[in-house]
Write a structure and sequence with these properties.
Elements lengths: L2 H17 L5 E6 L2 E7 L6 E9 L3 H9 L1 H7 L3 E11 L2 E8 L10 E12 L3 E8 L12 E2 L1 E2 L2 E8 L2 E11 L1 E2 L6 H26 L2
Parallel strand pairs: 6-8
Antiparallel strand pairs: 1-2, 2-3, 3-11, 4-5, 5-6, 6-7, 7-10, 9-12, 10-11
Helix pairs in contact: 2-3
């Protein structure tokens, strides 16, 4: 599998998402996080965007969010998160297993994603991810295998305070199984808000 080609394509999509200002609809604002959505071009659901301010620089936020030694400690939405294979210095295959959500309304899912870290001018740092087929990690009967359409994080220094960052998270997962559309539409904005607030709390605890 040509992971470089895959991550190049995903990186282009993430950049276009971050530059796209039209058609977004604000659907939830909570805990200083704003969640918007628009119809996805990848599947029959929506592309979701979560935005919030993080009191740290991008070069510290992004590694904290995707490296297993950090993320497995702070991300309450995950049962487990591990590196399956390191492709190069900036690219790896990761396996994540989620907790069940909403008192079991959404049961545990797992995802196998390629994750690529890409910097841009101005101190911007991004993760660029998509689910891939990986024979060494087949689906398990203990959870439902989900599929992440192109997703990731875009972290930029705040112009008015370069020691802080604007974090923008894009997700558009297909959770698999038989789930009412309304359940997914309700869950995903809350999952985004929790991700950003858990990142803030985790960084704050790390910096104590």
């Amino acid at each position: 599998m040509d992971f470089k080609k895959i991550t190049d394509e995903v990186s282009k999509k993430m950049l276009s998402y971050s530059q796209d200002t039209s058609g977004w609809r604000v659907i939830k604002v909570s805990k200083n996080v704003t969640v918007s959505s628009k119809p996805s071009k990848e599947y029959a659901g929506h592309l979701y965007r979560g935005e919030g301010i993080i009191k740290e620089v991008p070069s510290k936020v992004i590694p904290f969010m995707y490296l297993p030694e950090h993320r497995s400690k702070w991300d309450k939405a995950l049962q487990s998160y591990r590196l399956l294979e390191k492709i190069d210095q900036d690219t790896g295959i990761y396996h994540s297993v989620t907790q069940s959500y909403g008192m079991g309304v959404i049961s545990s899912r797992d995802f196998v994603d390629v994750v690529h870290i890409k910097p841009y001018a101005g101190g911007i740092l991004t993760t660029n991810s998509v689910s891939v087929e990986y024979p060494e990690c087949p689906p398990s009967p203990s959870c439902i295998r989900g599929h992440n359409n192109p997703c990731g994080y875009v972290c930029s220094p705040l112009p008015e305070n370069p020691e802080h960052s604007k974090l923008v998270v894009f997700i558009q997962p297909e959770l698999g199984g038989i789930l009412p559309h309304s359940v997914v539409e309700t869950a995903l904005p809350t999952i985004l808000i929790n991700l950003i607030t858990d990142t803030r709390a985790g960084l704050k605890a790390l910096n104590k």
